[in-house]
Amino acid sequence: MKRVDPKAYTKKYYLSDCSGYKEYKKTWGKKLEPRLQRIVNEIPLKKGMRVLDIGCGRGELVFWSAIKGADVVIGIDYSKNAIILANEAIKYYPKKIRSKVKFKIRDAKKLKFHDKSFDAILMVEVLEHLYKEEQMEIFKQLLRILKDDGFIFIHTSPNKWFNNFTYKYWCYPISTILVNINNFFTFSDYGNLVHPSKVRTDSHKIMHVNEPDYFSLKKLFNKFKFNGMIKSTNVTVAKPHLSWKDILFNTIVYFNPLSFFPPFNIFWGNDFYAVLTKR
Fold first, then answer.
1. Where in the chain is CATH 3.40.50.150?
2. Rounded distance, CA 46 to CA 232, Å?
3. pLDDT tier at 189 (50, 70, 90 boundaries)?
4. What SUPFAM superfamilies does the record tag this protein with (predicted)?
């Protein structure tokens, strides 16, 4: 079965390219980058839960779950380098947290956990790294190991339609007009968006083998009989709200906040997230 070579996820990638690396190197995951902090606000985690983080990377969400009160948190990743970094970070946490977490090198297509053994399963920015056939195998496993009253939290980015069409033909051109008008009248540089040709980094081109769209996610979730509204945050692309200009910019360029929900996020949502439950 095809997969992205785990050797592509080097230590250098995690410490100099993978989003949030600056905060990680300073705090070992204790402080989340703003993007990830916005995302975890949507996770309905409760104290006492047993949690599995698939594609845990450096381990930030594993530590976050333990700090939030989960009883047991297991982080798995098929990248040896990711697990090495996560096990290095664990040394900088108090014993109470260390006793709750465990990291393992595992392929999510071959999970050996007992049936209905997890209250919560996290998959944050993982689906886009998986070929379609891999997604099918993993969702079979998720259906088996998730408790009947549990949930799966999915976050995936980017929305293929957003990058291919909306960003190129709406966001960037409109942003260019707004920024030029502002800069002309204020004699300042508001800052334009990244050119569409640079919206995908070199690592994205290697690792993002299956960027989703709204309907591909809907089809996947329905196939395995999961319920959950597909929403968006646009946190990766939207400007931080530091002034009224930022709010106006995000409204015109990204249709915020309408683009947080369907049907607007089908094209204007840069990312997708869902809290999935069994039917």
1. 6-156
2. 22
3. very high
4. S-adenosyl-L-methionine-dependent methyltransferases
Question: Which residues pair with residue 72 across a beta bridge?
Answer: 50
3-class secondary structure, 72: strand
pLDDT band, residue 266 (cuts 50/70/90): very high
Count the alpha carbons within 13 Å of 141 in the hemisphere toward its beta carbon.
Answer: 17
Close Cβ partners of 270 (under 8 Å, ≥ 6 residues apart) = 157, 158, 159, 162, 163, 167, 232, 234, 236, 237, 254
Half-sphere exposure of 45 (CA within 13 A, CB side): 28
Residue 162 pLDDT: 99
- Rounded to two decimals, what is the model's pTM? 0.96
pLDDT tens per residue, range 128-168 = 999 999 999 999 999 999 999 999 999 999 999 999 999 99
Closest CA to 228 of 164, 173, 150, 113: 150
6-156 is a CATH 3.40.50.970 domain: no
Pair 171, 253: CB distance under 8 Å: yes
pLDDT, one tens digit per residue, over 107-127 is 999 999 999 999 999 999 999
Determine the Cα–Cα distance for residues 100 and 95; give it in Å rounded to an integer. Answer: 9
Q: Which helix (H) or strand (E) holds 146?
A: strand 146-156
Q: Which amino acid is at 126?
A: V
